[in-house]
Amino acid sequence: MALAASLVILAGGEGRRMGRPKALLPVGGTTLVEWMVRRLAPTCRHLLISARDPEQLPPDLRPHLVVDRHPGAGPLAGIAAALAASPHDLVVVVACDMPRVTPALVRRLAAATAGVDAAVPRIGGRPEPACAAYRRSAAATIDEALRQGRHRVAEVLSALAVRWLEAEDPALFTNLNTPDDLAAFEGWWRAPRPRRPRPPSAGAERGREMESGAGSSTTQYQVGPVVRHNSGAKSVTTAETFRRPVGPADAAE
Q: For 119-126, what is the mean pLDDT?
């Protein structure tokens, strides 16, 4: 079932090191942005694509365009534009140069926003704000930062209630910045994938649990804290957590 959220593909980057706009890079007989839409759009009820102008997108995707209102302000401008345009309270933002992001990660990001302004992966202590989920409650803070000329997303996050996802696979956030990165990605997605094992029937699964003494209490979880910040005060980690089962959903889809 699709999430009551907008999927937002950030496609406004100029791709200087790539030598051309990243959104229009060729991937599997289509463009990178179209490949990303085909992969991730079914997870959400609404699709938006943030870019500086229509020429950055293939014609078929231009009806989904939301124009950055602050050109040159980086991902923060795209996030602000998406929050203003979305018909849903929740937006899940993914940069178009992160093609290894999976539908399962999109769903985890959305689930982690309950009761907070944003859910953001943090890999090795480094936030990934261009692959994150934001609620409309974050919009005023983001808009004010842009009005003041503050464009660093990490700085803006310090003024929001954020749930950090600490245990995600770093490979999901691999960027395409150079032609070599693109070649490596093409090799990755063309490589054969092992088939997932067929899930056992419900009866067989219950039988194994009874034999082993296992049950719902043995499910492993990964936990990330909610960090709430007050302007001018030290950050406070609350007792709230985001819990998720560790299992086959973590594999690339």
A: 95
Query: How far, CA to CA in Å, does 161 sit from each of 110, 113, 167, 208?
Result: 15, 10, 19, 42
Q: What is the pLDDT of residues 20-32, one digit of tens each?
A: 788 998 888 899 9
Domain, as residue range, for 167: 3-188+220-250
Q: Does some domain include residue 60?
A: yes
User: Can you read off the two tokens belonging to residue 66?
Assistant: 């939301």
DSSP conformation letters of 25-87:
-EETTEEHHHHHHHHHGGGEEEEEEEESSGGGS-GGGGGGEEE-SSTTSTHHHHHHHHHHH-S
Question: Residue 233's pLDDT is what?
Answer: 33
pTM value is 0.77
Give a yes or no: residue 123 inside a domain.
yes
Q: How many domains does the chain have?
A: 1
Question: Closest by alpha carbon to 25, among 175, 132, 130?
Answer: 175
* pLDDT tens-place string over residues 94-112: 999 999 999 999 999 999 9
Side-chain half-sphere exposure of 68, counting CA atoms within 13 A: 21
Please name the residues in contact with 196: beta carbons below 8 A apart, sequence gap of 6 or more: 248, 251
What are 156-172's pLDDT values in tens digits? Answer: 999 999 999 999 999 99
Q: What Rg do the C-alpha atoms of the chain give, in angstroms?
A: 19
Confidence at 196, pLDDT banded by 50, 70, 90: low
Residue 204 resides in a domain:
no
